[in-house]
Amino acid sequence: MKSRSIPTLFVFALTLLVAGSAIAQSGHTGGCTCGQFASKPIPWQVEHSTTAYQNAAFAEFARWNNVANIVSATLGDGNNVDLANLQNEIFFATADFFTPDTFGICIISPQSAFSGTPSFNDCSEKPVSVSCGTFQEADVVINSDFSRGFTPNGPPDFDDNNGPAYYGATALHEIGHGLGLHHNFRNLSTMNYFEDFAAQYLAIADATIIRAAYPSQSKSMTDMGTYPFRYDPQKQQYSATTPVSFSPSSVAAGTGKFTVSNMTVENVGSTNLSSVKVEFYLSTDTTITTGDIFLASFTYNSFPSSGFDDTPFVDIPVPGSAPSGSYYVGARVLQNASSTDSITYNNTWASPNKLTVTGGTSGGVCTPSTANLCLNSNRFRVTLSAKDPRTAATGPGVASSFNANVGYYSIPALTGDATNIEVFVKVLDGRPINGKFWVFYGGLTDFELTITVTDMTTGAVKTYVRPGLSLAGGADTSAF
């Protein structure tokens, strides 16, 4: 159970550079289980009433299933929810044993199978004499009256006190109890509940103990993760997790460099990897994509399973093409030199604070004019030139805006009529789908068209040429 206090009930609270550092292989691998269900995969029912929380619950079951085939989650009907019906369920409820600051609980029957006698809470407290048993039922109950409330979508806040709690961190932790895991306060682990933004990750400690407890269900899997914090096992409780930071907080484009501290890179997967790459970006938002301002990459020649690195990355340069402004610092980890792994939720992060860039390229936004069509909140500048294939005469497009994402051109130098609409252009933010901005264009003329699109944030440029005497348009869904 996630909580700031442990109730007396037997429920558990979730209150191209080469990196110069060595890969650590100890310190993140502790943890323990006690008891489990006789048959696997373990059936669970999701009894949430809203689609958002149903999807969030399934996502957390899937994170455990990435490591081992141990759960089989289905959608229940919301009826006959019971703590003693021999059905494993996850649901929201208000109960007498909840306090306003309790996130949720996992109730396991019989309790002796989970802790033996005497009982224990933290893995470090486990008596040698404890023998574990077989579970008959486990129910995860999320506190519907939690004082801060929940959000089904992340990311959780870094200080773990401001705003709603992240449902996913609570559910992942409580499901872990239903798999037999006890609290683990000596390692980076979802079973260490002292930070929401750390508990959301299924880390090395969790994967290692699940593989040991469920050997016949374990999977061969690749999962490189990077986290916006560093865990220090020498510290206690909330102070053990330090959010990512960078210094200095202001740098000059073209000449400035900075250091990123308190970040972690982990190999949660079951296999050793080579050529693991970490890329750094500047972003105007907290979604890190390859369309952001690229800074530098650091490559590990080898990265063993259960290995991690939490040492600083130094001398990250800011390119001279970066516009002046304030940016989130972000990172992306790749399983090899060119691609991320299929477990994507832990592949990127963005800093809670912003880096100031000075002395960069002027502007950073498009200024509308008859020559410049400015789209997608003025981030993209579009210009057009045309050529008449019959006469070889050329002329510029005259831009007009239709809405924030769509504009059009007339070409009076060739048509003699400024009211004739000849070309439409649209730029959409497709990052929620594939991490890219999309460019579409279409012509109402058979002139040869040259369309130039400039990302004013990154300086990237794409040029599209449509031949003369053609009537086709074009689409680029991986433009920026």
Query: So, CATH architecture of the largest domain?
Result: 3-Layer(aba) Sandwich
- Strand-pairing-aware structural class: mainly beta
- Cα radius of gyration in angstroms: 27 Å
Q: How many H/I helices? A: 7
Summarize the biggest pleated sheet. Answer: 6 strands, mixed
* Distance separating the two termini: 43 Å
Percentage of residues in DSSP E strands:
25-35%
Q: Unreliable runs, pLDDT <50, ≥5 residues?
A: 1-20
Classified in CATH, the superfamily of the largest domain is: Collagenase (Catalytic Domain)
* Averaged pLDDT: 88
Tally of structural domains = 3
Strand adjacency order, main sheet: 1-19-18-22-23-15
Measured as a percent range, the helix fraction is 10-25%
The level-1 CATH class of the largest domain: Alpha Beta
What's the β-strand tally?
A: 33
Q: If you consult CATH, what is the topology of the largest domain?
A: Collagenase (Catalytic Domain)
How do the strands and helices of this protein lay out in sequence?
Elements: E1 17-18, E2 36-37, E3 42-46, H1 51-67, E4 71-75, E5 89-93, E6 104-109, H2 112-115, E7 134-135, E8 137-143, E9 150-151, E10 165-166, H3 167-178, H4 196-199, H5 204-213, E11 224-227, E12 229-231, E13 241-243, E14 245-247, E15 250-252, E16 257-261, E17 264-267, E18 273-283, E19 293-303, E20 308-309, E21 313-317, E22 325-334, E23 348-358, E24 373-375, E25 380-387, E26 394-396, E27 398-401, E28 406-410, H6 412-415, E29 423-429, H7 431-434, E30 437-443, E31 448-455, E32 461-466, E33 474-476
Parallel strand pairs: 1-19, 2-7, 3-4, 3-5, 5-8, 9-10, 15-23
Antiparallel strand pairs: 6-8, 11-17, 12-13, 14-16, 16-21, 17-20, 18-19, 18-22, 22-23, 24-25, 25-26, 25-31, 27-28, 28-29, 29-30, 30-33, 31-32
